[in-house]
Amino acid sequence: MEENPNPVYKDQRYGQSKELLYSYDADGQFHKNVGFHGEPDRIILQQAWDHFDERIADARQRVLAGKASPIVYYMEKFLADPLNLSMMAGISIWRVKWHLRPGAFKRLNEKTLKKYADAFNITVAQLKKVE
Amino acid sequence: MINYTHRQAGHCESGATSNLLNYYGINMSEPMAFGIGNGLYFSYIPFLKVQFAPMISFRNLPNTVFHRSMKYLGIEATVIKKFRDPKEAMVALDRNLEKGIPTGMQVGVFNLTFFPPEYRMHYNMHNLVCYGKEGDLYHISDTVMETAQVLTYEDLLRVRYAKGVFAPEGKMYWIDKIPNELDIKSAVSMGIKKTVYEMIKIPFPLIGVKGLKWMGRDLRKWPKKHGVDKASFYLGQVLRMAEDFGTGGAGFRFIYGDFLKEAGEKFNHTELLEASQMMGKTANKWREFTYIGARNCKNRSKPEEDYGMLGDMMHEIAGMEEQVYKKLDKIKL
Fold first, then answer.
1. Which domains does chain A have, with CATH numbers?
2. B156, pLDDT greater than 80
3. What is the ipTM, given to two decimal places?
4. Is residue B237 predicted with pLDDT exceeding 60?
5. CB of A109 within 8 Å of any CB in chain B?
């Protein structure tokens, strides 16, 4: 447990809220402390966010190079995998996987595009281009 | 608005359960609710991926803690598992609040506006209690946060109908009627019995102590099988599930130890107190595991050696836990 809010996280918004943490001391007592997570807990959480950021950047590159459909970028940005996305959009997982190709994405009709856009909470126009 | 006291807790569901019981005048701490409702659990499912890493769970299925603690304590409670129509779910919540019943709900974390941003992942097994409505705003007691929060109608509707694995589908629960006398002793006994069953007696290799051992074995193979980067990410997932996501530390082992201690003191039972000491030591071993694992995640030095050591450590932890459960199995209350 630490007193300082944010020594490890790269994003300044992270690690600002205090949590209730338990501990067990040599005297045989369990203690409840309200405070911030210790350094190891933060390292592992930051590692996960590094991993996600890497995946998002990689997906963006592939989409801009025309090797993947914009759905890939938004899916990674939403921290979802095809299974999650299929549940969120209400489209079967095989079709979702098919739509991750740029060619298949171009042929999508408005109705399906709307489903994806709703799942990502954006408009269809935003879905079609990656900034 | 209902006069509901918000208290912070380590684990969302047992915190909500203990707060609800406190509202009805039963003095119950969070560890006690957690132990009676047997929240302690372990499962390792390598072929199912959650957030790109094997699924590891230190908690039971959603709503187990509330449901079982009510059952064992003999309290009448209502659980509505599913509303097909989201609007109807909100109407049902409003009706409850008008009657003055604080209502617990299962929600998804991803769109929860007040939640700490570092935990913003697709996790649908979070619990919170709603205890009042003013105009468009709902008053929410989320035990992860230090203070009570508010949510708008749209925000609450969105989190209650989060999609994905274990979708909440508007699940809500509340306490109906408390009997005049509560038999806490038998409830504790039943809770411990069930936990022991789930941790060492289920004849399936991926659950409980057997699951821990299986994971320890797999852990050693990860660097060879998946490469150093992925292995370190997988190891991180184990540690994140144990430490970060609302467990109170060490994958609920601290809370469970505290429960054993409280029960031992309440019923003056020396063996329970001994078991609680053992559990505390196991929990500290888990913390040690986290320290070494986090160092590994940071430096990524000498992977084979490190993972071998971590695997041994996991086996040691599994052995220590097995001793605790075997001891608990023999205890008669």
1. 1-37 (no CATH), 51-128 (1.10.260)
2. yes
3. 0.80
4. yes
5. no
Domain B12-177 coded CATH 3.40.720.10: no
Q: Which amino acid is at A11?
A: D
pLDDT value of residue A2: 62
Residues of chain B with CATH 3.90.70.10: 12-177
Contact A69, A63 (CB under 8 A): yes
Determine the residue among A22, A32, A76 to mutate to test chain B binding: the one whose Cβ has the most chain B Cβ atoms within 10 Å.
Answer: A22
- How many other C-beta atoms can be found within 10 angstroms of the C-beta atom of residue B81? 12
Chain B residues whose CB is inside 8 A of the A87 CB are: 163-165, 167
Secondary structure element (H or E) that encloses residue B54, with its range: strand B53-59
Contact A48 B167 (CB under 8 A): no
Picking from B164, B154, B176, B96, the residue whose alpha carbon sits closest to that of residue B129 is B96
Q: Which residue has the tokens 């739509």?
A: A99
* pLDDT at residue A103, as a whole number: 84
**Distance from the A44 Cα atom to the nearest Cα atom in chain B, whole angstroms:** 5
Q: Is A99 helix (H, G, I), strand (E, B) or coil?
A: helix
CB contact A82 to B (< 8 Å): no
Residues B102-155 pLDDT 10s = 888 888 888 888 888 888 888 888 888 888 888 888 888 888 888 888 888 888
Q: Does the beta carbon of A80 lie under 8 angstroms from any beta carbon of chain B? A: yes
- Name B49's bridge partners: B54
Q: In terms of Cα–Cα distance, which of A13, A49, A35, A22 is closest to B276? A: A22
Residue B163 CB burial class (10 angstroms; 0-12, 13-18, ≥19)? buried
Amino acid present at A34: V
pLDDT tens digits along A23-44: 888 777 888 888 787 777 788 8
User: Which two tokens mark B21?
Assistant: 């019981």
